[in-house]
């Protein structure tokens, strides 16, 4: 018996399998993809609108970092309050707020506790009354925290 050894000419090339589509085969995947795209779009729009709405806050924080004369601090806080998205009636009241009313406004919109005499310290600054150096630093830090953390009822 002789062993029959096949020759290379007898080999046949194998056919390639049919191509497989990457596109989902069922409509459920399409719906899921559509919902995901819509959700990401809504999330992106909300973040963009919040970023635009908080432009006044970013500008105020930049101004606070450049502030040399602390007598400008009360005016800056009033500007921030006027820039907040509030009702028309609340906006009309802001320029006239003083003393206890101004303190109540600051406390109501504060994201963190603020000192009970913040409005008095701001009034002293506005009229050029001297404050100790450590109180300057503390007051600037408190005002910066208020600008960063104040909230507006939506």
Walk me through the structure:
The protein has 154 residues and is an all-alpha fold. The protein has a domain of 95 residues. The chain contains seven helices and no strands. The termini are far apart. This is DUF4381 domain-containing protein. InterPro entries: DUF4381. Pfam families: DUF4381 (PF14316). Keywords: Membrane, Transmembrane, Transmembrane helix.
Distance between the termini: 95 Å
**What do the pLDDT scores average to?**
89
The total of helices stands at 7
Question: Nearest-angstrom radius of gyration?
Answer: 33 Å
Low-confidence stretches: none
Biggest sheet descriptor: none
**Run of helices and strands:** HHHHHHH
Q: Helix/strand-derived class? A: mainly alpha
- Tell the overall outline: elongated
- How many β-strand stretches? 0
% residues in beta strands? under 5%
Organism: Pseudomonas cremoris
Protein name: DUF4381 domain-containing protein
Pfam families: DUF4381
Transmembrane segments: 27-49
């Amino acid at each position: 018996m002789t062993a029959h050894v096949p020759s290379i000419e007898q080999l046949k090339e194998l056919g390639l399998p049919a191509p497989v589509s990457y596109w989902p085969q069922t409509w459920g995947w399409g719906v899921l993809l559509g919902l995901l795209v819509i959700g990401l779009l809504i999330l992106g729009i909300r973040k963009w609108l919040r970023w635009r709405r908080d432009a006044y806050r970013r500008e105020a924080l930049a101004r606070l970092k450049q502030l040399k004369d602390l007598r400008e601090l009360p005016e800056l806080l009033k500007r921030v309050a006027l820039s907040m998205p509030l009702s028309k009636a609340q906006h009309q009241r802001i320029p006239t707020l003083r003393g206890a009313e101004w303190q109540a406004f600051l406390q109501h919109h504060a994201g963190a506790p603020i000192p009970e005499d913040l409005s008095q310290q701001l009034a002293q600054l506005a009229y050029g009354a001297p404050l100790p150096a450590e109180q300057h630093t503390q007051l600037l830090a408190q005002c910066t925290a208020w600008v960063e953390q104040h909230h507006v009822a939506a």
